[in-house]
């Protein structure tokens, strides 16, 4: 699904390299967790996979289903099934959440050569997905993320993901700002989408989320590189021992 090879990336138009030769493979159907201290480059990695323009890849490649996506813009990547749930979801005043979702879904369908959903079809889908995530219908009428609590913003991200049915889902610290009930709802939402032809990159600073979204692999990102890969027990080890031990071993 995803193969990142020797990825070096910097902030556009600067000499500030953030990723320094990152290697990562995510298989079809795999849930891979990326853990790492603040400032390691986790969000940068997620933005670069999604195609955000503020970053420049200077070396290496990102293969998605075996093909390089470096020349594709963010919209093309999204249309091909790459989805990023943001660490800090944007507030869009003046655009009702429902309108945003409908536009997002229909523009993606258009890019894939599929017809627009009728309004009743769309409403049925959005109500079902929102119900699963315990999202109130009233929330969908409010402008996207404006005045939403931390938990509501994260649930709105997962709702978008559920509707768009992506192949590669990147979740950047979806657990931050969630209390335990919201965390379980979000985790249930993610787990319901797990499947043989969908992969997840679950980025988190803490182990707690991984009690609910149990990963197939755990990768430790530190200073722009993956310094260790293991199974779910690696997350527990990090929780108990902190990052210092693993950073020391890698050095
Ligand atoms: P993480 O998500 O792991 O906390 P980030 O990807 O947000 O890490 O940041 C990695 C490093 O890159 C940090 O040192 C951060 O300060 C730096 N960085 C990220 N974006 C920018 C930017 N636009 N300008 C300057 N430094 C940046
Ligand atoms: Mg981050
Ligand atoms: Mg870094």
TrEMBL record:
SUPFAM superfamilies associated with the record: P-loop containing nucleoside triphosphate hydrolases
Name the record gives this protein: Fe-S cluster assembly ATP-binding protein
Keyword ATP-binding on entry: yes
Keyword Nucleotide-binding in annotation: yes
GO molecular function: ATP binding; ATP hydrolysis activity
Pfam families: ABC_tran
Ranges for domain ABC transporter: 2-248
PANTHER family: ABC TRANSPORTER I FAMILY MEMBER 6, CHLOROPLASTIC
Family of the protein in this entry: Belongs to the ABC transporter superfamily. Ycf16 family.
Keywords: ATP-binding, Nucleotide-binding
Domain of life: Bacteria
């Amino acid at each position: 699904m995803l193969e990142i090879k020797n990825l070096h990336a910097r902030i556009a138009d600067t000499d500030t390299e953030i990723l320094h030769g990152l290697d990562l493979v995510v298989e079809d159907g795999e849930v891979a967790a990326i853990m790492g201290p603040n400032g390691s480059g986790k969000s940068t990695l997620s933005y670069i996979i999604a195609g955000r323009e503020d970053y420049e890849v200077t070396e290496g490649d990102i293969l998605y289903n075996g093909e390089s996506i470096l020349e594709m813009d963010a919209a093309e990547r999204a249309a091909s099934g790459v989805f990023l749930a943001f660490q800090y979801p944007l507030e869009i005043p003046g655009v009702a959440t429902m309108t945003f979702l409908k536009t997002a879904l229909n523009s993606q369908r258009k890019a894939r050569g599929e017809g627009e959903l009728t309004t009743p079809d769309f409403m049925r889908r959005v109500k079902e997905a929102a119900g699963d995530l315990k999202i109130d219908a009233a929330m969908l009428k409010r402008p996207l993320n404006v005045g939403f609590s931390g938990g509501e913003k994260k649930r709105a991200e997962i709702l978008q993901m559920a509707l768009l049915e992506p192949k590669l889902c990147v979740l950047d610290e979806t657990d931050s700002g969630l209390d335990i009930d919201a965390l379980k709802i979000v985790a249930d939402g993610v787990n319901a989408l797990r499947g043989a032809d969908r992969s997840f990159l679950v980025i988190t600073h803490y182990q707690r989320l991984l009690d609910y979204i149990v990963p197939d692999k755990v990768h430790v990102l530190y200073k722009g590189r993956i310094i260790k890969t293991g199974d779910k027990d690696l997350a527990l080890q990090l929780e108990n021992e902190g990052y210092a031990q693993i950073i020391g071993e890698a050095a």
